[in-house]
Design a protein that fits this description.
Order of helices and strands: EHHHHEHHHHH
Oligomer: single chain
Distance between the termini: 54 Å
Length: 235
């Protein structure tokens, strides 16, 4: 049995517990939501720290993970040493600034420029992409006449790598270390007009994300001011 962030018996699960449990089981918030019959958005927002869950739902999550072989309570004196999924500040015997830097290495550091809704949108997109990848990886290989793989398998491989690339770009975007600048996806020219490989990748990404691209991006100051003005007028 794997013990996740050991705590006092029956203490409510935290977002850190939830994230550590997902990692231990190699699953996603979308998979858990489907299995226990709750909103995927609720669990994604809980993981991102933007939503508090009701005690009964937290208990259902605990019971779900415990049924999968995880535990959250402090072990007894005869138990095997617990596995700490991730350190806390108090675990790091060093200066606070150094401790926070070390925690950023062990945790998924998020850009402070992004709002909770934008973080949730990106995480949900990455979860959905993971499900697509799993489905493609499970497909049988089709052989070809002149190549080891047939055309269908070649297309599947290309799609898998494309989805993986999108997830990596989103991952770096969430960290504030974007490989492809996402702020201008709405005005990206067609890939046929690209001047470099980055332009082609940006065009492909814009086509893949479609209308949801705007949900991932921090609004520019002028757009923020315009939105606030409109909200004030409506009020």
């Amino acid at each position: 049995m794997v013990i996740i962030n050991p705590k006092k018996p029956n203490a409510p699960l935290t977002a850190a517990d939830f994230a550590a449990a997902l990692q231990a089981l190699q699953t996603t918030a979308a998979d858990v939501a489907r299995e226990i019959g709750v909103s995927r958005q609720y669990l994604s927002e809980f993981r991102a720290g933007s939503r508090n869950l009701q005690p009964d739902l937290l208990q259902r999550l605990r019971e779900y993970f415990e049924a999968k072989g995880l535990a959250f309570d402090e072990p007894g004196p005869d138990a095997e040493p617990a596995h700490q999924a991730a350190p806390t500040l108090s675990d790091l015997d060093t200066r606070e600034d150094m401790a926070r830097a070390l925690l950023c290495v062990r945790h998924f550091a998020l850009s402070s420029a992004l709002e909770c809704g934008q973080i949730t949108a990106a995480l949900e997109r990455m979860d959905a992409n993971d499900q697509k990848i799993r489905a493609l990886l499970a497909k049988p290989v089709q052989t070809g006449f002149f190549n080891p793989w047939g055309e269908e398998t070649q297309n599947d491989l290309q799609e898998v790598y494309g989805i993986m690339a999108e997830n990596h770009i989103l991952f770096r975007h969430l960290q504030g270390r974007a490989l492809i600048v996402l702020d201008n996806l709405g005005s990206i020219p067609p890939t046929s007009e690209a001047k470099d490989v980055a332009g082609i990748v940006a065009g492909l990404l814009a086509g893949s994300l479609g209308d949801m691209a705007g949900n991932l991006l921090p609004r520019a100051p002028e757009a923020e001011a315009q939105a606030a003005s409109q909200e004030g007028a409506e009020a």
